[in-house]
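Running this now, will post back.
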Amino acid sequence: MRIRLHSVIVTLLLIAGCSSDNQPEAGGPVAATPDEWASMRAVDACAILDETALAPVGKVSDRKYAGASVHSCVATLTMPDGSTTTARAFVGERITPDAQAVSLGDVQGYVDTSCTVGVKVAGDSGISISVAGDDAVKQCAQAKQVATALHTQLKEPPRNPYASPFHSKDPCQPTDQFARELGTVKAILRPTIVTCEISGGGGRLLVSQEIENLADHAHGDPLTVAGKEAMRHQETEQKDQCMVMVLLKDAPDGSQFTVHYEISSTKDPCGKATRAANDSTTVG
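Update: finished.
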């Protein structure tokens, strides 16, 4: 089964930039770039794996967020013959150009070379369904069977803006406050549904919404951000980089909903990262 973690950014999509003749001044208002993920931010990935819809295929159990993102959900699917597999719904998938068109009832789907079946929600981005397996032929057939059973959920994705601190939350906001730390904004990128990269004349900010297992996390210097527990990381040999991680609330399986604010700047990166974290956490 293919796993795509948001923390590993394979391709950056340039959404918008400002020409040298029309760049906003440092500290001035910055217009937010078009948010290609807006229509998907409130989608509840676990609600897509609907028990009733999947009943003809198998029994659904143990639904939970998967990997580092709340926009990914996995569930155990027990088939009528007693065999089990893992089904996954992923919100914020980019449909690859070489994916082949496939009919999913009354929904147009696309299947790629790894047997992931996706539907487009906005442009070439949307929702994908996949299943685990070692037999490619069987895996592709099961993925299409599961996606077809879920055609209603894929046509009208179920929404729950309150499912987590990240649902409906754009990591690029508040852009104008972030710009105060970065100077003249040159580009704003949204590589994935949970990441934002803002480049300015005074530095670069990467914001990432992640589910973090703190038992496996290298703890940094403790601090408080907008009344919330946080920690700051800076490597001795990398004085031009600093990351502040804010703990928002408990997540399933002993993890935490966290937001990372990583600044690359030749001047006071830790101060800038801390102020950016405070601005965003206070607004959010």
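The chain has six helices and 15 strands. More later if anyone needs it.
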